[in-house]
Design a protein that fits this description.
The complex is a heterotrimer.
Chain A lengths: L2 H6 L21 E12 L2 E12 L3 E5 L6 H8 L7 E6 L3 E2 L5 H7 L1 E4 L11 H8 L6 H5 L5 H14 L14 H14 L4 E5 L7 H14 L4 E5 L3 H7 L2 E6 L2 E6 L1 H6 L1 H16 L1
Parallel strand pairs in A: 3-8, 3-9, 6-7, 7-8
Antiparallel strand pairs in A: 1-2, 1-4, 4-5, 9-10
Chain B lengths: L4 H4 L2 H16 L9 H8 L6 H13 L5 H10 L2 E4 L5 E4 L6 E6 L5 E6 L3 E3 L4 H18 L2 H10 L6 H13 L3 H17 L5 H5 L5 H11 L4 H50 L7 H18 L4 H26 L8 H22 L16 E5 L2 E4 H23 L1 H11 L1 H6 L4 H23 L11 H14 L4 H22 L1 H18 L15
Antiparallel strand pairs in B: 1-2, 1-5, 2-3, 3-4, 6-7
Chain C lengths: L1 H4 L5 H22 L11 H27 L6 H20 L12 H5 L15 H25 L4 H20 L11 E2 L3 E2 L2 E2 L3 H27 L1 H11 L1 H6 L4 H27 L1 E2 L6 H14 L5 H20 L1 H18 L3 H10 L17
Antiparallel strand pairs in C: 1-4, 2-3
The chains are: A alpha/beta, B mainly alpha, C mainly alpha.
Organism (chain A): Billgrantia bachuensis
GO molecular function, one term (chain A): ATP binding
InterPro entries (chain A): ABC_AA/LPS_Transport, ABC_transporter-like_ATP-bd, ABC_transptr_urea_ATP-bd_UrtD, BCA_ABC_TP_C, P-loop_NTPase
Chain lengths: 279, 540, 376
């Protein structure tokens, strides 16, 4: 490359610009490990001595009534909220509490928000392109080229989320369900080790729900997936292991059937609905 | 200064002398009417020799004539004059224009207006002025009520000579009021200090009177080391007190400026803070309020006070109505697009400014300050507070309190808060969000109008009035924390004080620049201001 | 450097450059080759006026880059424009040499007038063209870097950012009004004589400045186009529409904002530097908040996030201003104010939106990048 080319990569001089993406160490089992995490807002304990372990490749569903701390838990894992006390480890090498949001993201933790947020002014293809794991510093981004390899990777994800035909469409004209899938696709582009998915089927039709269930179960194994969901039917259709949160800590954990028969769970959360279903 | 002989005599003999003088003065007037004695007394003043005049003044003083005070005061003010026609003495009551209203100096009866060309003024020189002042003070000290005695005692500090000192000593013994006695002893102490008595310093300690300070400064340079030392220490003390006074003064000006900022910003705090609407025409709504005051005074000539009081509701209404027009005409179409709202309302501000320039005048209009708002309150010798600023401060607090009450205690306030927090939910509960929008905007705009009414008492009323406040107002709201009325109050007052503290040190312009830079930096540190709104609703 | 070549593969850029080139050539020809009596003759006064419009157009492009693509409404871009202008003005001032009224070879007239006995340190070096031209970019660039660093780091965005950018330019205006600042106070810098040895009063120099403005606009346009067409441009749009989401994708949003903001400020400074020799004066009024917000109107009228819309808007509004202030000065502020309201309420996509509606094959939402194929 020319002199200009070397000028363009001048930023490599600064060590602190290099993201801390050394590989995640999962030799000791869990990919995510929360211990005694507590956080309070204005005296209200949103998370109270929460302990949670997610294994590598696992698909975990987290349920709990409103205000149980599900969203706050995700905020803590992604670095948006700092806990008052406790430990949050990603694999056995990365202390998430010392990292910023982008650092955590580039480490391989992807998050899907409750409300689908895709970049509506960009096409489906461009949305995925931006999400792709790549050098995300300024000059590399400015000079980034579209290579065949990238194109293949994007096509692969487009196939997974079933949006091949919408490739060049503006994201703004996608249906609600399609936006959710696109967002999951964007997470996949980051080659995450851990996917955090917040209420993926809210507002979806039956068909869309089925496709989503397929998509998520297909992902597990390659990635670890944590799904927060309200819809019991949906949870039952995908869940292998379920964690019930209540008032900021774990109330019960186990298979769907175990959890659903736990009297404490029935009392605080499943309530009438569960009684009807289990009866 | 040449001191008339009569003044050098002890008090008791003086009275005797004066009686004699009186008799002498009265001689030519023997056989005339009842007022002739007074006429004769005044006749003495007509002499060309200032010595003679001094004697005549003394004669009047000793005459115990009840009109003496009036004459001497008139003489001092240059209002004692003589009719060229018949030599009668008159007192000029008002001296503007060519025809002056006068009254007879002897009978007190009004004589109508007389051309100033028909009058001869009785002239005096500086020596006589000093004599008159001391004399009048002395009369005042004997005859006046406590307030005028106090003023008189204060007036003679630094003016005392040996003769007067003797008179004051005797007066001091009879005086009942502690305050007056304190002043008198200070006046005497200054006199003693001038004669080199070091123990006089003690009496003067802590006085803020400027003549006391002059005397002490002079004494501090004296050859007597004991006296110089004592004076220096007393001076240092006084300087300390003065410094405190200056701090108080800075604080006063700062709070006054701050309350103007609060007034200007509080309307914004409602429209921007509560509704999230950026109204760049807010300054122009203030301008309309100020012009309403001006128009009101044009409608009610000669009654500036009444006009000002009426302007308060009128200014509110005018600004509120224009605000409603802006909300309905423009802002409602730009809901959820704050940056576009900013641009559109900026356009409106240009239009309003140009409208005033075209319709009224591009020049500043002057708004009269009613009598009860002009003048000042003296706290001590070195500190006095101007009334108009005091009123504006009170007004700002009043408006603030009213707004807090409206937001906290009324149905409107409740609905406004509901709509701000969750528009959809509020509508679902039957709150008419559109109506709330209109009312809130009208309220914010109306308050801007009130700010304009208040500003008309402090600055020039012109088409650019609003422009000069808009950036400051936004700074106050952002500094205080958007959506928080108390934050606006604290921010406005503290920015006013900060500005005043910086001003003597850095100059007005630099102080303003520094405040702006300070806020710009502050916002980086705390993007949500001093008192941020908490919770999820404030996010995003 | 393929990203810089990208704009030349876009039809819209080629059309824009073609139109610009044609306009420059036409004006030059009509001025040089047509005799003055001829009705088509373009006087040097008009050429000068067009040159001024072109520098405004570059300024508008700079504002559109941050507002259109990054969603940052800067109400303080006039400050960067003025700083570039002052850097140029300082150079031109030093070029006067001893030909000023006081004949002082080292000090500009206003410093002699203020009884200053030596040149302040920050005036050193401005007698050298290369240094001054460097400062034209660096002065606004550094201010933008400092200001942007603080603002974006603490995530000040939206209307807050708009308000503090306005405060920034207001504070600078107050500062430059002070004589003690050493920039000529109220009167600013003026009475320039020559630039790079060319007499500023000669027609040839003026024509040269006009062409230079055109060239700068072309370069600035291509640069901005290259930025927005790159992946970085798409990150900007992503930031504009969903900042938090972009952050979660692993982009250091504040750095992208800072980068684009600084580039934009430098372009604004360049525009200011071209503007000053053409109008012959720079004074603190260029810092006034009114001017900065007017720039935003040009962009809004032309159409946000299109770049060429900014150029159209700048030329349209300023042409209208020249005409109106000449014919009925009172009406200008009315129409300017009216424009603000009309454009925001009725024409949110600006003139470019109208054009797109008329010509574009596929409709796209405002602020989208124009129909560009992603290509290798």
């Amino acid at each position: 490359m020319s002199i200009l080319g070397s000028l363009a990569s001048r930023d490599r001089v600064f060590d602190f610009l290099v993201p801390a993406d050394s590989p995640v160490d999962v030799r000791h089992g869990p990919i995510l490990y929360l211990e005694d995490v507590t956080v309070s807002f204005d005296g209200f304990k949103a998370i109270d001595t929460l302990n949670l372990t997610i294994d590598d490749g696992e698909l975990r569903c987290i349920i709990g009534p409103n205000g149980a701390g599900k969203t706050t838990m995700m905020d803590i894992i992604t670095g948006k909220t700092r806990p008052d006390s406790g430990k949050v480890w990603f694999g056995s090498r990365h202390d998430l509490l010392t990292m910023s949001e982008p650092q955590i993201a580039s480490l391989g933790i992807g998050r899907k928000f409750q409300k689908p947020t895709v970049f509506e002014a960009l096409s489906v293809f461009e949305n995925l392109e931006l999400a792709m794991a790549a050098d995300k510093r300024i000059l590399p981004t400015l000079t980034a080229r579209m290579t065949g390899e990238i194109r293949e990777r994007i096509d692969e994800v487009l196939l997974t989320i079933g949006l091949v035909e919408q490739r060049q469409r503006s994201a703004s004209i996608l249906s609600h369900g399609q936006k959710q899938w696109l967002e999951i696709g964007m997470l996949l582009m980051q080659r995450p080790r851990l996917l955090l998915v917040d209420e993926p089927v809210a507002g979806m039709t039956e068909q869309e729900m089925e496709r989503t269930a397929e998509l998520l179960t297909g992902l597990a194994g390659k990635q670890s997936v944590v799904v927060v969901e309200h819809d019991m039917g949906f949870v039952r259709s995908i869940a292998r292991k379920v964690t019930v949160l209540h008032q900021g800590s774990v109330l019960a954990e186990g298979s769907m059937d175990q959890v659903a028969s736990d009297p404490r769970v029935v009392e605080v959360y499943l309530g009438a609905e569960a009684e009807e279903e289990l009866a | 200064m040449r001191i008339p002989d009569a003044f050098k005599l002890p008090v008791m003999t003086r009275i005797v002398t004066l009686t004699l003088l009186c008799l002498l003065a009265c001689l030519p007037a023997v056989g005339a009417a009842q007022n002739d004695r007074g006429h004769a007394l005044l006749e003495g003043l007509v002499s060309r020799s200032f010595n003679d005049k001094a004697d005549a003044i003394e004669a009047i003083l000793q005459s115990e004539d009840e009109r003496a005070n009036d004459w001497l005061q008139a003489l001092l003010d240059g209002n004692l004059q003589r009719l060229k026609e018949d030599g009668r003495f008159v007192v000029v009551v008002g001296n503007s224009g060519r025809e002056w209203p006068v009254r007879d100096a002897l009978s007190g009866e009004a004589l109508g207006e007389i051309s100033r060309r028909d009058l001869d003024r009785i002239t005096i020189n500086n020596a006589l002025r000093g004599q008159l002042r001391s004399a009048l003070s002395l009369v005042e000290l004997y005859a006046g009520d406590e307030r005028s005695r106090l003023a008189a005692a204060e007036g003679i500090i630094g003016e005392v000579d040996g003769e007067l000192a003797a008179a004051l000593e005797s007066r001091l013994e009879e005086e009942e009021s502690d305050k007056v006695r304190h002043r008198l002893s200070q006046a005497l102490a200054v006199h003693r200090l001038e004669r080199g008595e070091a123990d006089a310093v003690e009496t003067l300690a802590g006085s803020l009177n400027s003549n006391v300070r002059v005397a002490l400064t002079r004494a501090a340079q004296s050859d007597d080391p004991a006296l110089a030392d004592a004076a220096r220490r007393a001076l240092a003390d006084i300087q300390q007190t003065l410094k405190l006074n200056r701090v108080a003064e800075t604080l006063y000006f700062g709070l006054s400026m701050g309350s103007v900022l609060v007034l200007a910003a509080i309307g914004l705090a409602i429209t921007f803070g509560v509704m999230g609407v950026i109204n760049m025409a807010h300054g122009e709504l203030m301008m309309l309020g100020a012009y309403t005051t001006w128009a009101m005074q044009q409608l009610l000539p000669g009654q500036p006070g009444l006009a000002l009081l009426l302007s308060i509701p009128a200014g509110f209404l005018v600004a509120a109505l224009v605000g409603i027009a802006i909300e309905r005409g423009v802002i409602q179409f730009l809901k959820g697009r704050p940056l576009e709202t900013l641009l559109a309302t900026f356009g409106i501000s240009l239009i309003l400014q140009q409208l005033v320039r075209t319709v009224i005048s591009p020049l500043n209009r002057s708004v009269v300050t009613p009598e009860w708002m002009s003048g000042s309150v003296a706290i001590n010798d070195a500190l006095s507070l101007t009334l108009n600023r005091l009123y504006v401060m009170g007004f700002a607090l009043l408006v603030f309190a009213a707004l807090i009450l409206i937001m906290r205690r009324t149905r409107l306030g409740l609905e406004v808060r509901a709509v701000t927090q969750n528009r959809a939910m509020a509508r679902a509960m039957g709150i008419r969000a559109t109506r709330v929008d209109i009312l809130t905007f009208a309220l914010g705009s109306g308050v801007a109008g009130l700010a304009g009414v208040a500003l008309s008492q402090l600055t020039n009323v012109g088409p650019n009035l609003g422009q000069s406040y808009i950036i400051d107002s936004f700074m106050v709201v952002v500094f205080g924390g958007v959506g928080n009325l108390w934050g606006t109050l604290v921010a406005g007052l503290s920015l006013g004080v900060i500005n005043q503290v910086l001003e003597p040190w850095a100059g007005a312009v630099l102080a303003k620049i520094m405040v702006l830079v300070f806020i710009i930096l502050f916002i980086q540190k705390r993007p949500r201001g001093l008192f941020p709104q908490k919770g999820r609703a404030a996010e995003g | 450097m393929h990203w810089l070549g990208q704009p030349f593969r876009e039809r819209s850029t080629l059309v824009f450059l073609g139109v610009l080139l044609l306009a420059l050539a036409a004006v030059t020809l009509l001025h040089v080759a047509v005799p003055p009596e001829h009705p088509l003759y373009v006087s040097i006064y008009t050429v000068n006026l067009f040159g001024k419009y072109l520098s405004y157009a570059l300024l508008a492009v700079a504002v559109d880059l941050v507002w259109g693509y990054l969603g940052i409404l800067s109400l303080g871009h006039g400050a960067f424009f003025a700083l570039g202008g002052y850097a140029m003005g300082m150079y031109l001032m030093r070029q006067i040499g001893d030909r000023g009224d006081y004949g002082n070879p080292d000090l500009p007239d206003f410093m002699v007038f203020l009884n200053w006995d030596s040149l302040p340190w920050y005036w050193q070096g401005f007698d050298m063209a290369w240094f001054a031209f460097l400062m034209v970019l660096l002065a606004p660039g550094l201010l933008a870097l400092l200001f942007g660093f603080l603002a974006f780091r603490s995530r000040v965005t939206g209307v807050y950012l708009s308000i503090i950018t306005q405060a920034l330019t207001f504070a600078l205006m107050l500062a430059f009004f002070r004589n003690e600042m050493g920039f000529g106070g109220n009167n600013g810098l003026t009475d320039f004589r020559e630039i790079l040895g060319f007499n500023l009063r000669s027609s040839d120099t003026r024509l040269g400045l006009f062409l230079a403005s055109g060239a700068a606009l072309a370069i600035g346009y291509v640069l901005c186009r290259a930025i927005v067409a790159s992946k970085l441009g798409r990150v900007c749009v992503a930031t504009r529409d969903a900042e938090a989401r972009t952050r979660f994708l692993g982009y250091r949003v504040e750095r992208f904002q800072l980068f684009v903001f600084v580039v934009s400020a430098m372009l604004a400074g360049l525009a200011g530097a071209l503007y000053v020799p053409q109008v012959g004066i720079i004074n603190p009024s260029e810092f006034s908040p009114l001017f900065s917000i007017e720039i935003v109107l040009w962009v809004a009228l032309g159409g946000r996030a299109t770049l060429y819309g900014a150029v159209i808007g700048a030329i349209l509004v300023n042409y209208a201003k020249t005409v109106f202030t000449g014919v009925m000065p009172d009406a200008w502020l009315f129409s300017l104010g009216g424009l603000f309201v009309l454009v925001t309420v009725l024409l949110p996509r600006g003139v470019a939106g109208l054009l797109a509606f008329r010509f574009r094959r596929r409709g796209k939402s405002p602020g989208s990048l124009s129909g560009r194929e992603v290509s290798a």
